[in-house]
């Protein structure tokens, strides 16, 4: 059993196995999970429908591997950014987006990122390690606890590439989706990937029909490899083939992320090329304004005129898209800006 002694890394089945070993009744596992995930009670002493002896045994053998909140910043648009410290001193960030009637948690899956995309500050700061199941879950539960509210949606779009920490990320999703734990609906969970083709194929067979988002940012191998070095390992032909298989197996529509960088990837010609590349996938494209980062002062946000020309080309090709509104840029909480530093 992985993460046996970290409560946040344990599935319901893990709890049931442990309690069977302890000679406890099976339903006690569901009770503990309800305390943690539904009631946000993180101290075993507070789980009042458990016997005192069981609470003492839990307290003596199980830890809750929550990250420590170092800072919470609030943007002028209501976006909240959290800086967390992990047990080994590593720092990560996650973001809470407020969309009026619902809230979305943008969660990190790695401390840093190994992919070094040219437009992302996370990769510029290097890679430390994968996060454990408990560290991933802990971000989400602590954001709910700190803000005193349930969070409606979770996107694995923070620091790191979730499909390079696939086993832990999928285990967390199973727990959050479990009706005896957080009971978060599959349609409220999204994985965003830079294009790890084998992981996309694994998602095609994943038992929980979560949503998939692909960071595209360029429609040809030469430009995409310059912006996203991962394209050298998984070039567009291989990547698009994996997306087509995913679409065929699941029937799910894929969202594509495209950050417009002035004079780099924002020409109408590249919009037409994007439409041709994604033909047959029924794509939905999120057009993202490039968010400034310290490591690339030469990259600028596309002008309104260039954005209009790019999106008009997409419209002409009958491609559905949305111009995303920037959120959290004033506190470096927007896409590509998370750095995990004090």
Tell me about this structure:
This protein is of the alpha/beta class. It folds into two domains: 7-61, DNA polymerase, domain 1; 68-331, Aldolase class I (TIM Barrel). The chain is built from twelve helices and twelve strands. It has helices spanning 12-21, 27-38, 52-61, 121-124, 133-147, 166-177, 197-204, 221-227, 230-233, 236-250, 268-277, 304-316, and strands at 68-74, 80-85, 91-98, 103-106, 110-112, 127-130, 153-156, 189-193, 211-215, 255-260, 284-289, 320-323. The strands form two sheets. It has a ten-stranded mixed sheet with strand order 1-2-3-4-7-8-9-10-11-12, covered by helices on one side. Strands 5-6 form a two-stranded antiparallel sheet. Helix 5 (133-147) crosses helix 6 and helix 7 runs parallel beside helix 10. The longest helix is centred in the middle third of the chain and has 15 residues, at 133-147. The model has no long low-confidence stretch (mean pLDDT 95).
What is the distance, rounded to the nearest whole angstrom, between the alpha carbons of the first and last residues? 35 Å
Helix content: 25-40%
User: Residue ranges: pLDDT <50 for 5 or more in a row?
Assistant: none
CATH homology superfamily of the largest domain: Aldolase class I
CATH class type of the largest domain = Alpha Beta
Radius of gyration from CA coordinates = 21 Å
Overall average pLDDT: 95
Secondary structure class reads alpha/beta
Largest beta sheet: what is the strand line-up?
1-2-3-4-7-8-9-10-11-12
The count of domains is 2
């Amino acid at each position: 059993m992985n993460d046996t002694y970290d409560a946040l890394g344990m599935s319901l089945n893990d709890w049931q196995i442990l309690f069977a070993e302890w000679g406890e009744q099976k339903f006690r596992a569901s009770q503990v999970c309800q305390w943690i995930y539904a009631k946000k009670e993180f101290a075993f002493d507070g789980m009042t429908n458990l016997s005192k002896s069981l609470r003492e045994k839990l307290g003596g053998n199980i830890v809750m591997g929550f990250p420590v909140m170092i800072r919470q910043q609030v943007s002028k648009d209501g976006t909240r950014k959290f800086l967390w410290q992990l047990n080994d001193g590593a720092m990560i960030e996650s973001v809470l987006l407020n969309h009026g009637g619902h809230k979305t948690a943008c969660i990190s899956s790695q401390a840093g990122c190994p992919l070094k995309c040219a437009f992302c500050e996370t990769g510029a700061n290097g890679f430390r390690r994968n996060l454990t199941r408990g560290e991933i879950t802990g971000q989400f539960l602590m954001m709910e606890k700190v803000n005193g509210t349930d969070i409606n949606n979770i996107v694995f779009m923070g620091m790191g590439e979730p499909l390079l920490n696939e086993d832990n990320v999928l285990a967390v999703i199973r727990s959050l989706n479990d009706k005896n734990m957080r009971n978060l609906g599959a349609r409220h969970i999204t994985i965003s990937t830079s294009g790890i083709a084998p992981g996309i194929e694994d998602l095609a067979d994943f038992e929980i029909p979560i949503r998939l988002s692909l960071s595209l940012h360029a429609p040809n191998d030469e430009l995409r490899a310059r912006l996203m070095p991962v394209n050298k390992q998984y070039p567009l032909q291989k990547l698009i083939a994996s997306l087509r298989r995913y679409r065929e197996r699941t029937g799910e529509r894929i969202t594509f992320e495209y950050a417009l960088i002035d004079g780099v990837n924002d020409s109408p010609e590249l919009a037409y090329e994007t439409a041709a590349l994604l033909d047959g996938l029924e794509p939905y494209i999120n057009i993202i304004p490039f968010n400034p980062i310290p490591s690339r002062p030469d990259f600028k946000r596309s002008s309104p005129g260039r954005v209009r020309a790019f999106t008009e080309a997409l419209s002409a090709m009958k491609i559905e898209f949305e111009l995303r509104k920037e959120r959290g840029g004033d506190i470096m909480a927007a896409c590509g800006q998370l750095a995990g530093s004090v």
